User: Fold these one by one.
Assistant:
Number 1:
Amino acid sequence: MKIVRTVQDLRAQISEWRAAGESIALVPTMGALHAGHIALVATALSAADRVVVSLFVNPSQFAPHEDLARYPRDEAGDAAKLAGAGAHLLWAPSVGDMYPDGYATQIAVGGAALPLEGAFRPHHFGGVATVVCKLISAVTPNLALFGEKDFQQLAVIRQMVRDLNLPVVIGGMDTVREEDGLALSSRNAYLTEDERYVAPMLYKAILQVAQGRDPREAGQALLAAGFAKIDYIEVRDAETLAPFVPGSGRPGRVLAAAWLGKTRLIDNVPC
């Protein structure tokens, strides 16, 4: 597996592959890779001739009070996992390469970006949309793959690609879970042993909401189980993230965010 750090070197390799008529899939990541990321790589390998994985902890999607400084980082370990998974290229740019001196452009997002995470983290999806647009523009992939664990993020990216006419297919993959149901996440490393025992309750709670339980009751059950705070448990339209209308014939999604100790967990299931 080749490792590059600049857009210039990335594009040189992409040009060679394009000249050979090869298709390209992109798997964007912020590192601290787990089995969910590797599953994305495996799917990408089955769908394209070449797989590029980007590794970039994007500062523009973190607010000043959030966990940018302590976000898990292990580039050497990540590179070894990706090489073992069969990825062809790891692009690991620096912050200076992505946001050079004088950088002054950001995408403003509405629609699916406004509720839920958008209400609690109003800075977040503008940073996500901007960096994903930059990643897609640099790699020019035929396909870009994202996990459904960050379901609202996936909806925002699909909205951006549609609205800006970007020539890429956006694919979503089912959330990869531990045996007890906890969604795989790099932030799970923050959980204490006791918190890790309680954490799967979030998945169980949203499954119950998908089956008809009142979201407020589900939230109270999580607080009783040891969660510190519930940011939201809501049923939304699976495409627009607008409030779900029962009987509309449209797919719904239960989305939740809750604090367990100092760790904020998010999860979602279809309904």
Note: The chain has a mean pLDDT of 97.
Number 2:
Amino acid sequence: MTEGIGAPEKDGRPVVQAIAAVGLFAVVVGGLWAQSKFVHQKSVTSEPAACSKSTDRLPARYISGARLCKALNRPDLPALLGTPGEQAESASGSGDWITLAGGGKIADPDATVSLDTYTVKLSASYEDLTVAEMGDLMGDARKTTVMGHPAVLYSSPTISIGFNLGGGKATTGPGGTARCVLVSKHAKDDGEGTFEVSIWRQDDVLPDDTALVRAAERVLPTVPGWTGS
């Protein structure tokens, strides 16, 4: 018997793999590492899941995974996603570094909340790139705004991770598609950091952009570092 889940290829943001000092794209290996961050576990109680203890290894100048989880794991998240009868089944945050191929490091704080239909990820980015520049690196990016902030909508493939419950082995393969919205922290597209909200469905059906943007509009203003229009 096997059990499957989906997780965005690490990292869901293509640009976080991209811009090292020499401007080359780095290859970040995700597979089983993503398993530890996105494994889908049902709550054993009738109450929505609380944020698990966060592993935060970043300096204080970066937002923590715990703070991102607190912002994302809000009571109305299921309603914002269009699934009001559901509740959070797992919630976690992490603040760590991504090491690029050239040896450079990029801060990578994020949080993930899983429901029965959707999984939602909130992350902060500190690359010195504007949203417009990041959008140019994505093949299907569509420019938009979120509460007056420059943004781009794009798709990201996910990894499907299967577990052999009897043999203890895991397998990986192509999963469904995540929809992501990358938003400037400031009303001006100044290249001083971005937030990203991503959603994907457990059944691999293409997620609803309306639900994605609706969730982003409610979550992002509660995250430290967001400035008003």
Note: Residues 1-5, 10-45 have pLDDT under 50 and may be disordered.
Number 3:
Amino acid sequence: MERVTAVDPTLPLSPYREIDRADWARLAADLDQPLSEMEVVELRGLGDRLSLDEVREVYLPLSRLLSLYATSTKRLGAATSHFLHEDDSTTPFVVGVAGSVAVGKSTIARLLRELMSRWPGTPRVELVTTDGFLYSNAELERRGLMERKGFPESYDRRALLSFLTEVKSGAPEVRAPFYSHMRYDIVPDATVVVRRPDVVIVEGLNVLQPPPAPNDVAVSDLFDFSIYVDAAPADVERWYVDRFLALRKGSFSNPSSYFNVFAHLTDDEAEATALGYWNDINMPNLVENVMPTKHRATLVLNKGADHSVESVLLRKL
């Protein structure tokens, strides 16, 4: 009779590998840094402290891992088509990037687009943000959702699913709406065009949300790989307030900006305003809708108080 060994209940069981920063950084030992310091500065979002060391030690190996996944998926697709006696119909590899407002996910998505496009197997990489799938301000006002902008119900989920379904069906050209952060609204007749690249990165707050009903399709069902950017809520709150204060002196000062009304606030008034938005909108959305999706991700980046990644969780295959 075969002997069965009992599992020690005191040992933590997890579907993830937990890799600390030092071990993850070693994966970059034989990889060339493809970006210059100027390119990193241009990619860095307001408030982010992205350095060349952070790019080399964290995001360069991550981009290599994603490229390996994409290339392997493409080979599997080709092998499946061969098995079925069909022409190769492999579709773009789709990566989802999720996380809180102000956690740095937009910078990470832009950085991964640049890094992945440098690998031979994934030269064509496109980035789409889910901001383009927010309902227009007029529609949000009509639905009484203007104060819940960024919550799941403020997005045209059907349009986002349609977009991703077309991408994963291999459509030669797919268009997504364009969102202007200056206008704080959708721009009519402006679109982002995706022409069947090797990789499509989809970045947004709620991209890992479960389906609203048991028989519905989740947006993440159409992802081949997903990343959640995690940090302590207290740190994200501070980053959010700091970013608001920086924007007040930057893009908010543009007369065309939706937020120009905040440009002349004092420091104390601006901080109070930012905390009001955080406590009334962004923190509730983070706790209720964003944080619970963390463990739906293929990979989790755990950030420390200084914005640097301290450890990585990678789902086991």
Note: DSSP finds eight helices and nine strands in the chain.
Number 4:
Amino acid sequence: MSSNSPSSWHPLGDVNHCPYIDFTREQWAKLASATPLPLTEDDVERLRGLGDPIDLAEVDAIYRPLTALLETYIAATRERAAKTQTFLGIDEPVTPFVVAVAGSVAVGKSTTARLLRDLLARFPETPRVDLVTTDGFLLPNAVLAERGLTERKGFPESYDRRALLDFVAGVKSGRDVMRAPVYSHTVYDIVPDQYIEVRRPDVLIIEGLNVLQPAPRSPSPEAVLAVSDFIDFSIYVDADPDDIECWYIERFLTLKRTAFTQPNSYFRRYADIEDDVAIEGARDIWRRVNLENLTQNIAPTRGRATVVLCKGADHHMRAVHLRKD
């Protein structure tokens, strides 16, 4: 373990003034020795995302210590809340602990979020864990087209930021029921009149591209809030952009043979073309849209995360960076 290794990546660049503690894969894996592993190979198969070859050994080495660490943060937050209530002479229900999982398209953040949900729910202190993706808060395609944002889907301006903020603030404030819209990756749009209901969970996991974005600048003297203001613990899944591009293209080809063949698929036009044409189309979408979004909006939020998980070209985590505070 080191906080100033020259070979380590640091979210703030300067290795001598970095607020992160660095762990190699081997150092981090040793932290799992006292933590039970409640998942099986079948569980991992069910939870892994498309194109993500994660296995039980990876869960054992990376996600066992991560969820155990998360439980210590949750316990500390609850203890502080209880002490604060005693000091103030009030008695309020415990509000949900909010975890954010951020990172690029195709980097594997969905798999990370699903694994955390299942692992955390197996701890007796946090049996109720909900997972919501920010995809549900994308503006409908018709609205994006009307605003000239069709080619900016996934960029911060393509979301209903007010609705997303109201949802997270409502959950964090202890509202009994909050509803999140449903997004279909098949039709590539919001599903009308369908919602996910969140009913005061112990933990809410929010997974999305831009969940660590700070509040936008505003000329108004009133305070402007962002989703990141309501997050208790955040994880950024990181990898080299060239590796992510390869994973994106591989996933695109898999979808070409599966989901894209459905009659109602938004990408149905790619199902019957030759692979080399599909690859060029996928590479164009990646570089013109997803890479630009990663460079401009997503990667700059990496230094705001509590934990940064660094993936190698084989999808395995090679290092973990934990914020000191």
Note: Residues 1-9 have pLDDT under 50 and may be disordered.
